Every structure is written in structure tokens, then in C-alpha cells.
Amino acid sequence: MMDVVLADPARLEEYAILFARTFADDAMIMWPFPADAVEDRARENWLAFGEGSIEAGWLQEVAPALGIASWVPPGEANRFVEVEERSRDAIRLLTDDGGARYGRLWDWIDRHLPDEPHWFLDHIAVLPERQGEGIGSALIRWGLQRAANDGTCAFLETGRERNVGLYEHFGFRVVHAGEVSGGPTV
Prior knowledge:
Elements: E1 5-6, H1 12-23, H2 27-30, H3 38-56, E2 59-62, E3 67-72, H4 77-92, H5 100-111, E4 118-126, H6 135-150, E5 153-156, H7 161-169
């Protein structure tokens, strides 16, 4: 069994690198940012948002920074939106359109969040060379157990079609699929 622990604020940079390595080829990261230096931009993107996630206590890890997952608990949706919106100024500087695509993406996601209380898996990242070892599964199970304990559902979004089967294995199901205006299918 892998231990899932609260993320350590001292590992902020390690988490950013982990996120960037995992998501640099993800449509939800690639679309809002210029094609050059996507991994660097993904790292900066995570730094803009990740610190707020750590401060809120949403970020869990399988140490040492082998995998991370940001699970936002029920009742924290407004706080999540505030953290995400605060990050937009820093993210605008990483884009070539003043953050317009990024804003459209996250506004679209915000409109599709469930109305009922839920645990929201905002993101999960596992070092590419450690994928398939159960790290991601441990992080997913961590949040699903909290949702079960609370008697609520769990929700996530993905821009990677190949991930849908993995999430379905854990009991997730597709409730909505659509294309962000001019952007990726989520």
C-alpha cells in the first residue's frame, strides 16, 4: 500500500516539475499556451495555481513527489474558483492571447461542475517513469474514500481520451463530453 500524505509546501518546485512533465502533452495545457516551451509554461501554470491548492490543504502526494493529486472537498467550489481566478494574472503572461483561451477553458469547466456536493479531482500527476506502479491509483482511491465517507459523488475532467477507461475502472462515468469553444474536447 502506498502512503498518501498532505503535500509539503517545501516541495512546491518539485510538484511543479512533476505536473509539467505529466501534462506538457495534454490538450488542456497545450491549447491555452503557445507551442514553444510548453513544459516550462506548464510548470509556471502549476506554480500560479498550485500554491493556493497547497495552502487550502487540497494537494496530496505519494512522497517524495512521485505523484500528486488535488482533491477539492465539498463546499470548497467557490474557494477553488477564487484560487483559479487569482492565478489568471500570472497565467496571462504565459500565453500569446492575454489568457483568452485559458479563461475560456476554465470558464467552460466551471459551468459543468455538478450542482450537488462533490469531491473534485482537479488534477493528478505521476512521474512518467513511475506510471503503472499504483501511485495514481492510490491517489484516486484516497479521494474516492473521502467521497464515500461523506456520502457524496466525485467529479473530474480530462482532456485525454485514453484516461477515460482508467477513470471508469474506478467507477467514474462520462456525464458530459464537449468541445471548449475552439479548443480541446473535455
